[in-house]
UniProtKB/TrEMBL annotation:
Entry-linked Pfam families: ABC_tran
Top-level taxon: Bacteria
Domain ABC transporter positions: 5-228
Keyword Metal-binding recorded: no
The name this protein goes by in its record: ABC transporter ATP-binding protein
Record keywords, A-Z: ATP-binding, Nucleotide-binding, Transport
GO MF terms held by the record: ATP binding; ATP hydrolysis activity
């Protein structure tokens, strides 16, 4: 599998506090990857390490085949949290700045996007709406013609209509430029709408990664008479379990048929799957990456 990002034992420490520790991850090329996890899981720290804004305290991270923060920066587009822009600069100033800083800058693409969005190039960024600032940041990110586009919760503060428009524009850019994308989000609906690959990060550790279609086809909810999950067949890996006096409800992963007639079997939504993995207790034993592919 070709990868655009690889981390091994990656950690970042601030004073006595580890914002990210012992993270091991591989992100495949040619995918739109949804990176999800609870607050404090280390998602933003991981992405800032990937683009070279932070340096690791421990471990290694490579992006596009080279150590993060080296000469491949021109090949990476980055839209940070809150889609930061320079409030006193106009849209035209931002495009000129992008052209001056990026050797592969596509000015025709940038100008066409600004015109299509109906934005006034003379308007200052500080007077744009949140959705317009997000679109300006996305324009800057894709107009440098990157190989990898990294988005750190770029639509979290936007209203539903602005989120939808941003993600539609992102999907058009992916189709036109054949980008690899890593999109961090706490909104599973956004991941479901735009991503084809999922990574769930909890306490710096990857709990599951794989094609979303395959993940949904290999995870099930079982409901039936109370049972000790240890009695299940070896091919049925229990992700979460809850019990009442008479009934058990399990979320399992398996690529084998479920033949026990005592179970009522149902498929999971993507949100159900993500929550099941986010609710797992993270222990040293849960460290290995679970990767599911066709």
């Amino acid at each position: 599998m070709n990868t655009v990002l690889q981390a091994h034992g990656l950690g970042k420490k601030y004073g006595r506090r580890w914002a990210l520790s012992d993270c091991t991850l591989e992100v495949p090329a040619g995918r739109v990857v949804g990176l999800v996890g609870p607050n404090g899981a280390g998602k933003s720290t991981l992405l800032n390490l990937a683009v070279g804004l932070l340096t690791p305290t421990s471990g290694t991270i490579e992006v596009l085949g080279s150590p993060a923060g080296t000469s491949q920066r021109a090949k990476i587009g980055f839209v940070a949290q809150d889609t930061p822009t320079y409030s006193r600069l106009s849209i035209a100033d931002h495009l000129r700045l992008g052209a001056g800083l990026n050797p592969n800058w596509d000015d025709s693409l940038a100008q066409a996007r600004i015109q299509r969005l109906g934005l006034n190039p003379k308007q200052r960024a500080g007077r744009l709406s949140g959705g317009q600032r997000a679109q300006l940041a996305l324009t800057l990110g894709i107009s440098k013609r990157p190989e990898l586009l990294i988005l750190d919760e770029p639509v979290a503060a936007l209203d539903p209509l602005a989120r939808r428009e941003f993600l539609q524009d992102l999907m058009e850019a992916v189709a036109e430029q054949e980008l690899s994308v890593v999109l961090s989000s706490h909104l599973v609906s956004d991941v479901e709408r735009s991503c084809d690959y999922l990574v769930v990060l909890v306490d710096s550790r990857v709990q599951i990664s794989g094609e979303i279609e395959t993940l949904l086809a290999t995870h099930y909810r079982l409901s039936g008479p109370r049972r000790d999950e240890k009695t299940l067949p070896a091919a049925q890996h229990v992700i979460s379990a809850s019990h009442t006096d008479r009934q058990s409800t399990l979320v399992i992963r398996t690529d084998q048929p479920i033949l026990d007639p005592a179970w009522t079997v149902s498929q999971l939504s993507l949100e159900d799957l993500v929550l099941a993995y986010m609710g797992r207790a993270v222990t040293p034993e849960s460290r290995p990456v679970l990767e599911v592919q066709r």
